[in-house]
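Lab intake sheet, docking and co-folding queue.

SAMPLE TYPE: protein with bound small molecule
LIGAND NAME: S-adenosylmethionine
LIGAND FORMAT: SMILES
REQUESTED OUTPUT: full 3D complex as structure tokens
PRIORITY: normal
SUBMITTED BY: R.K., bench team

The fields below were copied directly from the construct record.
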Amino acid sequence: MPTLGEQETVGALLDRATRHLRQAGLESPRLDARVLLGNAMQCDPSSLLPGSSKPVSPAQAARFDTLIEGRLNRRPVSHLTGRREFFGRAFRVTPDVLDPRPDSECVVELALRHLAAGAPARILDLGTGTGCLLLTLLAERPLAQGLGIDVSKAALAVAGDNAVALNLRDRASFAQGEWFSGVKGRFDLIISNPPYIPSEDIHGLAPEVRNHEPRLALDGGQDGLGPYRIMLPQLAAYLKPEGITILEHGQGQEASIALLAEQSGLEIIATTTDLGGINRGVALKTAPCVKKALGNDAGTP
Ligand SMILES: C[S@@+](CC[C@H](N)C(=O)[O-])C[C@H]1O[C@@H](n2cnc3c(N)ncnc32)[C@H](O)[C@@H]1O
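RESULT FIELD (auto-filled):
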């Protein structure tokens, strides 16, 4: 600790906070300390080097101490800083939304492989949360328009803020609802990362997740597949004839989802794995026999 009149340094603060976070059993103490000091000092964390003798003002040091205390109470870093990077863009995050996961980026990549760059497209995102999936797709595909649905009004407010911050408000709209209820028309792409954790498994998740993230964003019912059982049978009626659906899913759920998809008249056209090599996403299209039965327009909700 500095003596009276002496200022703390970046290096000393980083060392002390890293030690406390490590003792508390946190997984990435040095990175967390650096990101939080960057937030307290309003600067890029990568400019804060270990051992640096750069001075930290008493107000910045006090802000940092409060952030570290929050982290020791297992509040997620994204809740403390209010933001998370996803697919190279910053998203506002609050306790009302799921913290966007790097693992979901593979689902966006899969969607982009099926969305032509120079063509207009209508996208539906079910359970939009921060809007990270929809808004990333709109940012990457400038001719696309999208609708994000969420049952949580608070989550929709965050998604709306993110759309404004990313300059996408004119192409993104949001509506409160339960999955397809109130959704009209057909889409080129329907994407969803629904809650898929089995209810019983939630108590075993990290404290950051089980105590601080919304249960509504996590709990997929008894076996985690509840939302897929609601969504999959309705998908064909909301897809354009050549439209596709991309769904994120949990570890080990791919066989059950394949079965539900088949029972719903959908065919798997691609799958994707996350950063850990775990099956994480599936792309589906309407099976030809179902397409014929529905016709191009018949069955449009
Ligand atoms: C796993 S989070 C995904 C959020 C965001 N799409 C992402 O990938 O980070 C699931 C979202 O589904 C929403 N949700 C839960 N039940 C819903 C329902 N019945 N209808 C619509 N949205 C729902 C939650 O509020 C939450 O925002």
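REVIEWER NOTE: The mean pLDDT is 94.
SIGN-OFF: pending second check by T.M.
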